[in-house]
Predict the 3D structure of the following.
Amino acid sequence: MQLKVMVTGKNRKIASDISEHLTQDRGYSVVKCKASKEALFASVPAEMPHIIIICLGDETGETVSVFDVLKECTRMGGITIIVIANDDDQKLFINNTKLERMFFMSRPVSLFALYEKLNEIEKQVSENLENGSMLVTEYVNPHANDLPPRKHILVVDDDSNQLLQIKEHLKEFYEVTLVPSGDAAIKYMVRHRVDLILLDYIMPDLNGPEVLENIRMIPALQYIPVIFLTGVKEKETVIKTLLELKPQGYIVKPTKKSELVAKIIDVLG
């Protein structure tokens, strides 16, 4: 069993040393990731590591909050988070993080202690794979049809803060999936049912109008309603796009919960 480990954090020296040891001593697949919300949000779902090691150094409350994005990512699968920190950084991390579960290791790092923990995780992952059939049981809910199924909304934005804020607004009422790019959105929609798309107007690579044009060329997707997310500065350009591409409307960022839900109800009923 080969673990995949993602290493991130401001302390680049420790991150580099650990990456080298894990690759050479253990033969693990190691992925390095920049300590930013955008990089983490894009990399974790794509790589799906078994372990994320965060190497702290000279942190502030703001830099620690960057790793809150992992709370959403770790729910996609069984990911263990290990935080390497001195006493001051550990206290700061605990006081400012929204992560629900993690393991702390002190600096300087004891490779013996780290490898002991990795052995434990590796054994657990291997056992889960071997007993996979025992971990899945079927349950037929007799009340499943009592309530209508929740509508599924796909939110597309390269700003991870914006994505997480919108999910907070909508998770009470809808199933919400977040993706960081237009290309990821199209790939997702080909495989999954989506009832409505909240689409950022300006993004790198494919922007909102280009994504909408691509969607309209795919018969199975062309009738999915689209609402643009836009800043105040692009408002006039968006209105022009409304006339040309005919999406179901737009919402100006930053989004307010009441306005967002009202617009979605107006489109979906």
